[in-house]
Amino acid sequence: MLLVAKPILGEEEKAALAAVIEDGWITMGERVRAFERAFADMHDARDAVAVSSCTAGLHLVLAALGLGPGDEVLVPSMTFVATAASVLHVGATPVFVDIERLDLPLMSLSDAAAKCTGRTRAAILVHYAGYLPDRERWRAFAQARGVTLIEDAAHAAGLPGVGTIGDAAVFSFYGNKNMTTAEGGMIVARDDAMRGDAMLERVRMLRAHGMTSGARQRLTGHASGYDVTMLGYNYRMDEFRAAIGLVQLARLPEWNARRQALTERYRRVLESDCPDLALPFPQPRPSANHILPVLLPATVDRQGIMDDLRAEGIQTSVHYAPVHRFTFYRQRFPEVTLPLTEEFARRALSLPLHPDMDDDDVDRVARALARALAKQRETMPP
Ligand SMILES: *Cc1c(COP(=O)(O)O)cnc(C)c1O
């Protein structure tokens, strides 16, 4: 089965895990710190804080900003549920914003502006499918309205420019992301203001129970005891994950280049083999090419296409069912309607995209998709 996404793990990861067992120090040690430093360097950030997941990282950033009941946070609905859940975790209210256009499924600036109120404190930008939002326009928006920007960069590890839009950016190393530690995440903060340092210091403490020093620092004599100065969490990363993360990070640029090349090939062959498909992001835009969404014609039975592709050994999926339509969110926010997000979600289909694929895989997917679409044209009234 050609999978939509897959983790790439091998001998180097095995050796890195074995080395942690040899050393015997298994959590929050030198590897976690080295992973933070290396990740910050790759993203031109002064420093980074490793956490147990992107969801945990988003929660910590919102907590560090002091957001809570009565505060509103603008979020897209065309995202994974964690983006909105993190807002609810601090007791604030997510305000769902539509996408810009069907061919630009990033959070709409004009809809965000329309939904700003006196209570709007922050906006979470999601780099959907790995594509970067317009930095200058969002920074101008944030400045004009006194809104803090946070990047949910779960799809965009290794992308130049990521982390420079918001006051903080949070990455995911879940198994299907561009690099993985099985579970894990990373927070970077802007370094052009004291604010970035203060943010990282705060999330570093919040990550580990609000303690003023860690076990490693006490062992190495850098600290003798600790105090607890805030209500913290246990969102730590361990040495096994950091060891894998260091190996994966070194390979990320090569993998992202491969994703870019595969995406370009998809665009070429889909344009010729499947002319009734619409491809989002037709204009060039920086991207980590995390997923390859296509937009099916409105009349097509998507499940039928997915079944036909599966029968040919090709997995597909949908990114995403809109968050505001899930039962839990519908019950709390029944009045929300986002016409473009809903139409995009009805017609979107994600095709296999990962660095273990070659050009022939792309051609095979395009041909299978063309056949499935042709079959539906034959059985449908014109
Ligand atoms: C995967 C993902 C998350 C959650 O990441 P975890 O590390 O699994 O918590 C958040 N936002 C988006 C957009 C994602 O794709």
Structural write-up:
It is a single chain. By secondary structure, this protein is an alpha/beta fold. The chain folds into 2 domains: 11-245, Aspartate Aminotransferase, domain 2, CATH 3.40.640; 253-379, Aspartate Aminotransferase, domain 1. Helices cover 42% and strands 13% of the residues. Strands 1-9-8-7-6-2-3 form a 7-stranded mixed β-sheet, with helices on both faces. It is globular. The relative contact order is 0.17. The structure holds pyridoxal-5'-phosphate. The modification N6-(pyridoxal phosphate)lysine is found at residue 177.
Short description:
One of its GO terms (molecular function) is pyridoxal phosphate binding. The protein is α/β, with parallel strands linked by helices. The chain contains 13 helices and 11 strands.
Query: What does the largest sheet look like?
Result: 7 strands, mixed
> So how many helices?
13
Largest beta sheet: what is the strand line-up? 1-9-8-7-6-2-3
Number of strands: 11
Mean pLDDT: 96
Please, how many domains? 2
The first-level CATH class name of the largest domain? Alpha Beta
Helix content: 40-55%
CATH architecture of the largest domain: 3-Layer(aba) Sandwich
Give the terminus-to-terminus CA distance: 33 Å
Global Rg: 22 Å
Outline? globular
What is the multimeric organization of the chains shown? single chain
Low-confidence stretches: none
Bound small-molecule species: pyridoxal-5'-phosphate
The ordered H/E elements are HHEHEHEEEHEHEEEHHHEHHHEH
- Proportion of residues in β-strands: 5-15%
CATH topology assignment of the largest domain:
Aspartate Aminotransferase, domain 2
* Helix/sheet category: alpha/beta
* The CATH fourth-level homologous superfamily of the largest domain: Type I PLP-dependent aspartate aminotransferase-like (Major domain)
